């Protein structure tokens, strides 16, 4: 029993060392609210740690990490969607600009943040499988790897990536006003 726990902990630590920043980006892409994003990241880490006890090397650790992380994120998004209702806020909260960026950041850095926020907002609107495909693509994964994680053929992944990129570019250039295709 102790050896299984040690192996689980060791695999988890190695996975986090290798893919921790990718998991941070994934949680940001799935969850816009910073507090909920932290909750999601904790859910991903817990799911990943738990899953390492059943990891059997039938796929690469990278594939396993992405598969578990995307499943946890998708489950979180579905739960959040069901739980969300109109939230009322006070006038003070509406007027508060929030902690978007330090006032001392340069203009170009602020523009980059705004562009990334717009891109993530558009990605949030994609359905779960399209979101998963484009996030893996943005992480630098190739079609074969994305197919391994999602269970979709590499050719279909390539087609989906091309279509999703076109949709995102169109929405980005037109202010995000088009319905999902």
Overview of the structural elements:
The chain is mainly alpha-helical and 181 residues long. It folds into two domains: 1-83, RNA polymerase sigma factor, region 2, helix turn helix motif (Rna Polymerase Sigma Factor, Chain: A, Orthogonal Bundle), CATH 1.10.1740; 106-181, Orthogonal Bundle (Arc Repressor Mutant, subunit A). The protein has helices at 2-30, 34-51, 61-83, 91-95, 107-124, 128-138, 143-150, 154-173. The longest helix has 29 residues, at 2-30. The termini are far apart.
| Average pLDDT score | 80
Give the H and E element order: HHHHHHHH
* CATH homologous superfamily label of the largest domain: RNA polymerase sigma factor, region 2, helix turn helix motif
Radius of gyration, in Å, reads: 18 Å
Integer count of domains: 2
Low-pLDDT parts are 98-106
Please identify the structural class as seen in this structure.
mainly alpha
- Tell me the strand percentage band: under 5%
Write the CATH fold name of the largest domain.
Rna Polymerase Sigma Factor, Chain: A
Shape: globular
- Helix content range: over 70%
* Distance between the amino and carboxyl termini: 50 Å
- DSSP helical segment count: 8
Tell me how many strands there are.
Answer: 0
CATH-level-2 architecture of the largest domain = Orthogonal Bundle
């Amino acid at each position: 029993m102790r050896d299984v726990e040690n192996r689980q902990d060791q695999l988890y630590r190695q996975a986090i060392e290798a893919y921790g920043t990718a998991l941070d980006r994934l949680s940001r892409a799935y969850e816009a609210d910073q507090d909920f994003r932290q909750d999601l990241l904790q859910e991903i880490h817990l799911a990943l740690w738990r899953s390492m006890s059943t990891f059997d090397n039938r796929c690469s650790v990278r594939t396993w990490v992405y598969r578990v992380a995307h499943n946890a994120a998708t489950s979180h998004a579905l739960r959040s969607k069901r739980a969300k209702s109109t939230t009322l806020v006070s006038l003070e909260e509406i007027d508060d600009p929030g902690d978007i960026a330090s006032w001392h950041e340069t203009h170009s850095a602020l523009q980059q943040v705004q562009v990334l926020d717009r891109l993530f907002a558009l990605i949030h609107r994609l359905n779960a499988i399209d979101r998963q495909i484009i996030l893996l693509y943005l992480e630098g994964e190739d079609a074969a790897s994305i197919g391994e994680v999602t269970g979709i053929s590499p050719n279909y992944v390539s087609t989906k990536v091309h279509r999703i990129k076109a949709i995102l570019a169109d929405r980005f250039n037109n202010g995000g006003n088009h319905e999902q295709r």
